[in-house]
């Protein structure tokens, strides 16, 4: 089963398959959730402490689950939830692993910005290759998510991009709002 799922995830990431091509398996969704959580924590640990990384990673899971559930209920296709979430979590986990390398190279820059958000860009030394790799992988992750939403919601790719961007904006807003309320969460 591992080889079949890995093959399907690869096909989804190459935009040649959709979430409907994954098995509807709650145990696979649990594994996908754990992998997503692990990679999200690993990325966040590069710029924050363990508590913040755990809370923000768990929060992103909850927000994504509520977001996807609401969209699928709106489209009257709630039966697609397990496959959609599995696809989103597994593809995000792969992108997250790939992002660790450029994020590690960008860590000093990110720490400087976290500690002093008013710092002038001229004062920063930006590693260009790491920045390009991070940007490329982030955009590719957004394209993959749009592709998954396109299939899950039976919408055009353009609307899939809008849905993927809406989730990212919602996530940033909610995490930012809660961070301001609770001081750094």
UniProtKB/TrEMBL annotation:
Highest taxon, organism lineage: Bacteria
Membrane-crossing residue ranges in chain numbering: 28-46, 52-72, 84-106, 126-145, 157-182
Name of the protein described by the UniProt record: Yip1 domain-containing protein
UniProt keyword annotations, A-Z: Membrane, Transmembrane, Transmembrane helix
Organism the protein comes from: Oceanococcus atlanticus
């Amino acid at each position: 089963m591992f080889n079949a799922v890995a093959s399907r995830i690869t096909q989804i990431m190459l935009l040649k398959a959709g979430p409907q091509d994954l098995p509807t398996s709650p145990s696979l969704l649990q594994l996908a959730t754990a992998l997503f959580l692990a990679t999200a924590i690993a990325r966040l640990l590069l710029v924050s402490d363990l508590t913040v990384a755990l809370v923000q990673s768990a929060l992103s899971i909850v927000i994504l689950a509520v977001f996807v559930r609401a969209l699928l209920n709106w489209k009257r296709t709630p039966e697609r939830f397990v496959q959609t979430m599995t696809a989103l979590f597994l593809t995000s986990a792969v992108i997250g692993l790939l992002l660790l390398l450029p994020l590690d190279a960008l860590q000093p820059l990110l720490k400087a910005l976290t500690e002093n958000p008013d710092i002038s860009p001229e004062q920063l030394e930006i590693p260009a290759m790491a920045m390009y790799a991070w940007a490329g992988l982030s955009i590719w992750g957004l394209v993959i998510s749009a592709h998954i939403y396109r299939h899950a919601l039976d919408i055009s790719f353009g609307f899939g991009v809008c849905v993927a961007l809406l989730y990212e904006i919602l996530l940033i807003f909610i995490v930012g709002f809660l961070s301001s309320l609770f001081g750094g969460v």
